[in-house]
Amino acid sequence: MTYREMFGGTATLTGRSGTGYEFTVFPRFTTFKPNGGVFVMGRQTGAETFEFCFIGQTADLSVRPLQPDKTSCFQRFGVDHIFIIEEPDAASRAKVAADLIGAYQPSCNAP
User: Fold this and answer.
1) First to last CA, the chain
2) Domain count of the chain?
3) pTM of the prediction?
4) Which residues of the chain have pLDDT under 70?
5) Where in the sequence is the domain holding 95, given as residue range(s)?
6) What's the CATH code of the domain at 43?
């Protein structure tokens, strides 16, 4: 993923199915409204690149930390950005997250 692929603070991540999902990119510790959504934890690895360590979904993006049991993994990875899609439907969130996990196989999603 490069900044060239981003437009106005958004980035499209492509799932294993080939479906593209448009995310909004924020600094890691941004506060969000209590809406459901899919989130991707990542770090900037170069002037124009990102790597991802975790993909998850929640009914309430305002609850922080989003995934308390993974906080140490996020810290070791050096997460500095969070990619967000708001999605109120739980089944849709689960489908999007699973599709993206299948494509990126992020390290902090491993058991």
Assistant:
1) 25
2) 1
3) 0.90
4) 1-8, 47-48
5) 3-109
6) 3.40.1440.10
